[in-house]
């Protein structure tokens, strides 16, 4: 049976009360995940950090929470928040195809890359270091495991994508993206040393929260700017 629903300028069917077309509705839904991923990640990590035996929020990297009893919670957090970030990145790509005339729509794929990095960081567990979980050696490991190397590789890929995205995704507040990118680069450089210094660990916490804030603010801005009726020629 032929679809007899009314359509917008792009030919996409109207949905709901007819004030939006399907393409715009899907785009906005995907962008909504950009508002949810950060709070879920931060709350999950903070709660785990407070209740896990031997974990010190000022000394231990969040990635270490994937080790030991209860480590599945952080693994799930990485994967779920990564999938949400991938959805938000696809939404940014779709939105910018409309708003930016397609010129920088590719920048949304960088956010997708960050999401893939998070999923990979969940699939590969970081090596225990700095005394966590209890019984782990103090300091770093002499020979990283396959899981540890995979975690570093995916995290590095994702963080690189995020840093570049902060500079190139077009928003009304480009200065915020640049500040976020620079702070995150500095924070990531510090944490890659494996240091348990509170300055390094807390600094990376600040960088992570700032990055999630940028994702939420950017997703919200594009959500609001995405027209309810998609122009002709965009599918």
From TrEMBL:
InterPro entries xrefs: DUF998
State whether keyword Membrane applies: yes
Q: Does the keyword Transmembrane helix apply?
A: yes
Recite the UniProt keywords alphabetically: Membrane, Transmembrane, Transmembrane helix
Q: Which domain of life is it from?
A: Bacteria
Transmembrane stretches, start-end: 30-51, 71-93, 105-126, 146-168, 175-193, 199-217
Q: What is this protein called?
A: DUF998 domain-containing protein
């Amino acid at each position: 049976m032929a679809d007899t629903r009314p359509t917008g300028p792009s030919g996409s069917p109207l949905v709901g009360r007819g004030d939006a077309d399907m393409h715009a509705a899907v785009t906005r839904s995907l962008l909504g995940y950009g508002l949810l991923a950060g709070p879920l990640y931060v709350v999950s990590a903070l709660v785990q950090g407070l209740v896990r035996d031997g974990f010190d929020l000022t000394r231990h990297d969040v990635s270490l929470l994937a080790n030991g009893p209860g480590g599945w919670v952080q693994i799930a957090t990485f994967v779920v928040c990564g999938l949400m970030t991938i959805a938000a990145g696809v939404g940014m790509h779709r939105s910018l195809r409309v708003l930016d005339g397609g010129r920088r729509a590719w920048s949304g794929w960088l956010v997708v890359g960050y999401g893939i990095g998070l999923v990979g960081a969940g699939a590969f567990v970081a090596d225990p270091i700095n005394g966590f979980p209890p019984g782990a050696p103090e300091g770093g490991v002499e020979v990283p495991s396959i899981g540890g190397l995979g975690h570093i590789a995916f995290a590095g890929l994702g963080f690189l994508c995020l840093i570049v995205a902060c500079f190139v995704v077009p928003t009304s507040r480009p200065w915020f993206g640049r500040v976020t990118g620079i702070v995150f680069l500095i924070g990531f450089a510090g944490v890659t040393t494996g240091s348990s210094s509170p300055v390094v660990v807390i600094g990376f916490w600040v960088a992570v929260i700032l990055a999630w804030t940028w994702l939420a603010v950017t997703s919200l801005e594009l959500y609001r700017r995405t027209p309810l009726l998609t122009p002709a020629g965009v599918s």
